[in-house]
Amino acid sequence: MTEVSIAPEVWARLAHAWDGSLTSTATILVIVTASLLAAKLVAVIFQQLWSYEKAHKQLAAQGVPRAPSGNPFAPDAPWKREDLHRVGQDDCEKLGGIFYFRILWFNCVQISDPWLMHEVLAVANKHPEVIDKPRGFPLPIYDCFDRGTSNPPQPCLISTKSADPWHKAVRRGVAPAFSPDNIRNSFDAILEIAERLAARLREQGSDQAIDIDGALQCESFDVIGRIGFNHDFNATENLLGPGAEGCRTIKEGCAIGVNDMRNPVRPVLRTLPFLPEAWTHRRKVREVQARLLGMLHSLAKEVQSRGRRDLEKDASIGNHLMHLHRRERDPLPFARMWSELSIFFMAGMETTAHAITWALYLVSQHPEVERRVAQELDEAGLLVSAQRPNPRKLSREDACSPQHLPYLKAVLKEAQRMYSVAPLVVRKALQDVRIGQYTIPAGTAMILHVFAMHNTSANYERHAEFLPERWLDAEAEKARPLPGTSSAHHTADSKVKRFLPFLSGNRSCIGMSLAQLNYTTAAATLLSRFSFRLADDMGGPAGVRAKEVYFVTIQPKERLNMHVVPRGPAL
Ligand code: HEM
């Protein structure tokens, strides 16, 4: 056999040629792939822009009125206004119960007509593949709840799509904890917390004004901790001290979430390592999130360590979460339980507190309403007075039965109408969908503007006035065609409501019974013992109006200072 040998210099030349061709093949492959991806991206962007443009033409062709969008980057752009809820209300008064506007190329339809809102909610209920909560780009509104409720981020009840089977499972699993009967059984604990708050306010005295919104947040925080998870945070015991720190932490955490929701670029910027910490507020955000999630993590661990208890004996939200199964015998993973537990504080604390705050504020501004509330409480034997320094205790029937304290309950409803604390929610049309006489094109954001529905002339006579007696009519929640308005062409359909502070359907507020029992108990306890006077530094009603902000909830900016004047011999 002859051996074939290759000279070393030939070998080296061959290897070099081979190497070079490999490099150039790889380079070509990279260039081709990158070009294909870039072309695909450009095609997707164009397709998306084209579909938005088509949708805009479709809406215009159907005669849906259009609100001026203006330049979204201008300093005075409407959507940058702090009282954003009032922008939708003004536009609704001018353009009617349905109109659309564009942010850049993106189309948003605002709906406040009760009949159309009813249809949207009905479709979303039955067909989540047609209308659902928006997630991700370009509407990452609900995504911030995932980041704010556990680490690493996990979805939770409010942020999951209805089409996600997990949503149904969790909602069904915890619903018994929120049933009106179950919540009624918590009355004694709620009353105890409301009385604790009243005792602290009395100690505070009336000379010094107190931020009543902050005090009520402590109260709601304690109620959710106690009723939901058998844990007493005791924030009401020490309103200004360490007891209330947990409550303030939740508020700070919510503020980060809301800022991210209003400007979705912020969370992205925070992840960029080369941007200065101070500019992205990274350190501050990390510090608040660590405090917030640490506190809620400890609570979730505490609930977990108690194990699964008999639901007859412990009907708290926490125990219901412990009984939840992913599959047969496969319990809810801890991380998911943590995020679900957290969302009840995020969704329930500020909302309930602001609802009571606005009611107390409105009563303080309407002496004739305050007189009537006091008279009703007096006749029920609940008012503190010179003759009755120690009245009877508020009972479960007082708080729960519509026959008891009807005027006070009407006052609370009217306050929720005028200050609908959750003023708007967002949904997305995932397919073209017929709503009334309109076809809403796929990809359009739908803003269900409950605040505008509650506060425009098309739906309420004398809508700008605080008139609690309108709720003494048992049918008052139903939508009715008002003569001379755009609602006049609708029929009086008994299912359609013009009052939806908690929304309706499968994504309505699961905490409604708890919120209602809490704000009735707290308002009755406080108004039977005190009269509330707006502090001078608030600048009167005009000052309060100027500091009213939309921060996912309608709330007083920073604080609402009031003097809490004890009733009794001095009055
Ligand atoms: C006055 C007080 C309250 C008001 C006005 C209110 C209002 C609302 C509204 C309008 C929604 C729908 C949000 C959306 O779809 O984007 C909602 C959802 C929710 N609320 Fe409330 N809420 C209140 C109190 C509470 C309380 C006390 C809790 C629990 C402790 C709670 C827990 C929730 C949860 C978990 C959801 C999400 C439900 C789901 O998507 O299935 N809320 N609330």
TrEMBL record:
It comes from Coccomyxa viridis. This is G12414 protein. It holds the Pfam family p450. It comes from the Eukaryota. Belongs to the cytochrome P450 family.
